[in-house]
Amino acid sequence: MSKVAVVTGGTRGIGEAISLALKDLGYTIAANYAGNEEKARAFTDRTGIAAFKWDVGDHQACLDGCAQVAEKLGPVDIVVNNAGITRDGVLARMSFEDWNDVMRINLGGCFNMAKATFGGMRERGWGRIVNIGSVNGQAGQYGQVNYAAAKSGIHGFTKALAQEGAKYGITVNAIAPGYIDTDMVAAVPAPVLEKIVAKIPVGRLGHAHEIARGVAFLCSEDAAFITGSTLSINGGQHMY
Ligand code: CAA
């Protein structure tokens, strides 16, 4: 039976590319989404990948959502924690809600999804968890104390859980994308983005499929000896 992978935020942007790359490897994919049902239906029509709606920042919703995936597709062997939001602004203008939403969804989502799936992976003696961090979690970024803290937290979370999973055949790794040409990056004001791109040695934004290739590798059998690591895919913007 083919392995089952849940990709959070898996119906658009980097998540869509990851869902497609894992499907190409022969896995059965559940693409989680939080937003628009019509768009999710269009994604399923286009790709043949089942979409499941829940908020990764809601602990119980993750437990229920993963149980639903298991019932429909089989137990979850692979989790890609990709769902994330930005609420950018300098600290002086950042509200508690802006801080809390980003921590709850970007970092809390990783905890919630691991709680929902790690036990089953342990029982079956095999699992892959790939967490999507960020260059901005490694290097920091003006106007992103919330996002940088959450993404930096993801890197610590990855290294700690990797130690717990190793003896059960579960690898836990992170990818730290740089600036990728998705809606999230398109929301950065053009003059600000121009200055950022000027500092990327490769001289351009990345593409979603360039992140997805890394995820696919970390989920494969070939990557069984890689755990607790962070793969930076950022065009040389930050060498870490
Ligand atoms: N370093 C130092 N100073 C900076 C700066 C920087 N990187 N960026 C802006 N400033 C300064 C400006 O020069 C300006 O100074 P003055 O007031 O002295 O002129 C001041 O900060 C205010 O700048 P803005 O006019 O831009 O202020 P704003 O309040 O309108 O916007 C902001 C602030 C929301 C943070 C805006 O600058 C912004 O959106 N920055 C981009 C943040 C970013 O890169 N987000 C990444 C989103 S994509 C993502 O997160 C994916 C991923 O993983 C990579």
Counting DSSP H or I runs of 4 or more residues, the number of helices is 9
- What is the class in the CATH system? Alpha Beta
Using the alpha-carbon principal axes, give the shape: globular
Class by SSE composition = alpha/beta
What is the CATH topology?
Answer: Rossmann fold
Query: Assembly state here?
Result: single chain
- In CATH, the architecture is 3-Layer(aba) Sandwich
Number of strands: 7
Mean pLDDT: 97
Q: Give the topology string: H per helix, E per strand.
A: EHEHEHEHEHHEHHHE
Domains, number: 1
Question: What characterizes the major β-sheet?
Answer: 7 strands, parallel
The ligands bound in this entry are: acetoacetyl-coenzyme A
Strand order of the largest sheet: 3-2-1-4-5-6-7
Low-confidence stretches: none
Determine Rg (CA atoms, Å).
Answer: 17 Å
Strand residue content: 15-25%
Taking the alpha carbons of the first and last residues, their distance comes to 39 Å
User: In which range does the helix fraction lie?
Assistant: 40-55%
Please, what is the CATH homologous superfamily?
Answer: NAD(P)-binding Rossmann-like Domain
Organism: Sphingobium baderi LL03
Protein name: Acetoacetyl-CoA reductase
InterPro entries: Acetoacetyl-CoA_reductase, KR_dom, NAD(P)-bd_dom_sf, Sc_DH/Rdtase_CS, SDR, SDR_fam
Family: Belongs to the short-chain dehydrogenases/reductases (SDR) family.
